[in-house]
Amino acid sequence: SSAENPYRGSVLIGFISGNEVSKSFMKSYLELTHFDRTNFGYLSNRADSDCGPLQIVDGRNQLAQATLDQPNCQWLFMVDTDMGFEPDTLAKLLAVADPVERPVVGGLCFSMREVGADGMNGKDTYPTPTILNWMEHKDGIWRFTGANHYPVNTMIRVGATGTACLLIHRSVLERIAERDGPHWFGQTALPDGMLEGEDVSFCHRCMDL
Fold it and tell me: What count of other Cβ atoms lies within 10 Å of the Cβ of residue 14?
């Protein structure tokens, strides 16, 4: 019943991509939608936006607008097309999300950082969690700064995170639009003129509100 499952049919899954997506994403997407159909029925629709590296901001804004264009859609679930995820990822996020207390919840994701040449014409790399905290630096400017450590199997409050696996409640998109217009992911500037990424810019707006 709707009382037992208030989120039935209320989630739009959205992603941006070029002409191709990774094999891991496609398999993960199919398994997630199958899991949803046979269990909770959270998903109501899908939206995707074709874009290249220079159109990421517009692509993510289109996903936010697509969510608001559907009156019954309460959540936007964004996943990136270059990664894999578990079939119950959306269910896990909805289990801990809350429209008032936790209207934005992200999955634990990692980015791959390059640290130098590996001696074989490649790069040495290491994974780092996309967990950022709002901190003052030595130059007096506050910036979102990466955290290298985190508690295992624990929900934590962060200053910002990426949009690779992010669940956003409709009310967040509405509040940002009321203040800034349809520019949820437009890049914001720090006092030194540096532009924040579109994902961090979204989180910065959430922090301000």
Answer: 24
Residue with tokens 């909805």: 94
Q: Which helix (H) or strand (E) holds 55?
A: none
Cα separation of 148 and 116, whole Å? 19
Who contacts 59 (Cβ-Cβ below 8 Å, separation ≥6)?
Answer: 16, 49, 50, 51
**pLDDT value of position 4:** 66
Write out pLDDT tens, residues 142-170: 999 999 899 999 999 999 999 999 999 99
Q: What rounded mean pLDDT belongs to the chain?
A: 93
| pLDDT over 70 percentage in the chain | 97
8 A C-beta contact, residue 32 and residue 85: yes
Q: What dihedral angle (degrees, nearest 10) is formed by the CA atoms of 185, 167, 71, 54?
A: 30
Give the C-alpha separation, 23 to 136, whole Å: 40
pLDDT tens, position by position, 33-47:
999 999 999 999 999
CB atoms within 10 A of CB 127: 10
Phi, psi of 111 (to 5 degrees): -105, 155
> What token pair was written down for 34?
């199958």
